[in-house]
Q: What sequence folds into this?
């Protein structure tokens, strides 16, 4: 066996960091902003991970008014309360959350295509 073979024996897992974040092992709690494709050109933006101390309905009301879209708050048994908005509002939502002082910019994770 050569030295090169020994170095390759310990395989690198590129998803190890993302799996650790999903399990809640990290000390930071991220706000996840995702987009989901519905049918055709329709899409749905979801916001998950806000602190439970915030009033989700008031945040939703401001988001709907600022972005001229419809939305709802959905109760998920595993994820808690999730805000859903019509359309691809990822950039708008992240800017709104930072300007309103709800969350810091480095704690927002934007997912999607």
A:
């Amino acid at each position: 066996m050569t030295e090169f073979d020994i170095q390759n024996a310990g395989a690198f897992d590129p998803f190890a960091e993302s799996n650790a974040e999903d399990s809640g092992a990290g000390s930071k709690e991220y706000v996840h902003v995702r987009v989901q494709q519905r049918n055709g050109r329709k899409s749905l933006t979801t916001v998950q991970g806000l602190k439970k101390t915030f009033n989700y309905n008031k945040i939703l009301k401001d988001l709907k008014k600022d972005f001229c879209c419809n939305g709802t708050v959905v109760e998920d048994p595993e994820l808690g309360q999730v805000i859903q908005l019509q359309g691809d509002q990822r950039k708008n939502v992240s800017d709104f959350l930072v300007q309103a002082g709800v969350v810091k910019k480095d704690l927002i994770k934007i997912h999607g295509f």
The radius of gyration is 18 Å. The chain is about 30% helix and 25% strand. The longest helix spans residues 56-67. Residues 63 and 93 are 7 Å apart (CA to CA).
